[in-house]
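Attaching the record inline, Q. Sequence:
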Amino acid sequence: MSRPWLAQYPPGVPAEIDPDAFASLKDVLAASCARFADLPAYRSMGTAMTYRQLDDASRAFAAWLQKVGRLQRGDRVALMMPNLLQYPVALFGVLRAGMVVVNVNPLYTPRELEHQLNDSGATVVVVLENFAHTLAQVIESTQVRIVVTTQVGDLLPPLRRLLTNAVVKYAKRMVPPWRLPGAVDFNRALAAGRAQAFDEVALGHDDLAFLQYTGGTTGVAKGTMLTHGNMVANVLQVTAWVSPNLRDGEETAVMPLPLYHVFALMGCLCFLGIGAQTVLVANPRDMPAFIKTLRQARFTAIIGVNTLFRALLDAPGFADVDLRSLKLAVAGGMAVQRVVAQRWKQRTGVPLVEGYGLTESSPVAIANPVTIEEWSGQIGVPIPSTEAAVLDDDGAPVALDEVGEICLRGPQVMRGYWNRPEETAEVFTADGWLRTGDMGSMDERGNIRITDRKKDMIVVSGFKVFPNEVEDVLALHPGVLEAAAIGVPDVRSGEAVKVVVVRRDAMLTEGDVLAHCKQHLTAYKVPRIVEFRNEPLPKTNIGKILRRALREGAAAA
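Structure, as predicted:
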């Protein structure tokens, strides 16, 4: 097929990557640990772990899984932790032992956790003690036979470890740690693993690396099968894409998004691939602590989502952060709002580089060149070795600049959904395109603009209204802190636009909101209903507003 987007690739970015450069993520790790052995790989709570130490600790955990845990190649291991040094150690330990990582949100409810553990068939869970109380409620109804517990400070220096664990354990705001009978302490597992011989495992592109859970386009959360080949390809694609800005062994990247989310996970792998130091932020909602970390880091790159960048810009202490070293700010996971992009560039001098992907594509598939000088309002162009097309419901291409469903092909596209062949078949066209469920358009140069999720689209008297557009307008109003647009049934127009608004200005009225929208939107896009809320809107673990929850609440009302 024609690939007009290649003309926009910066010098040095290849049209294709060599997927055979590494056989598995284990080989990516080995190469980086050998090349950058004495450089810091991860930093958390003021403590750095070098690539040599990462190699040693992950090897020890892999040996413990093999010899003490008696796990076999292909067994599933669930990781249920925030961004701590323990996460990459456990992550790479599982992978190099030939097992499959099941990333788990530690804030899951018992029902959500039970479903994911049972669906994946995980037999081992590594969990931060502060969240073990949730596991305790469901473990008897799962296949889990080994629980490894860790405390926040376990991989910090001895004195800091004792102090950190004591503070966390007795903090009134924290859920008391639960000790499950027979649970193994993480540090003791590492010590026992160091006394064991590690059996190297030969892995290839077809071996499963992750069961990464997602709601997909419909239905209950399902495991996306991401192979070593998928993940290696995306690591190579993304590192090639950022190569004009970032240099091997020279960068410090801030990671405030949780590593159990696929966007942050790929960032973690890519930064490891170029020998960067990744600064792990365990709780970005603690803004004073987050700002303190940024002041100390002298970072060159940061990954985030629209809500996080907006929260930083609104935080008083962010004005004092030294940003002279910043080279790259990447935004993904949700649509970037124009006002946030403009404020970010004004404050930092560096544009937000927006990209696009989904769990089913490992996740990065489309991105703006990192050499842009201004935020474009587009999600960009397909990255190396990736094809994109905009198709109608019958799988036929739509005209340039016409809206259809964004579809993808490339080596990073998933194998399918775990134990769900029917749902896998539904998301692929006959000729192998992955249907993303996102609506958008492509221009003659290959630039892709996303409009919204297919299921979130609102149809008012036959006219399509995309919530992102309405929300972008609302974000421009100084009296609006956050807002979401949803469709609700209407006897006259089929659906009507409803907006749910959290005020920044307590004096903001419905009339103010409607007048602002009428100024910027054509008539059928103007909200019919305005609801004000005093509490934050429901969000996913990376800060994306859950429109589905708002629709369900409206339906119940």
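Residues 22-367 form a domain with the Rossmann fold fold (CATH 3.40.50.12780). The chain has two domains: 22-367, 457-556.

More tomorrow.
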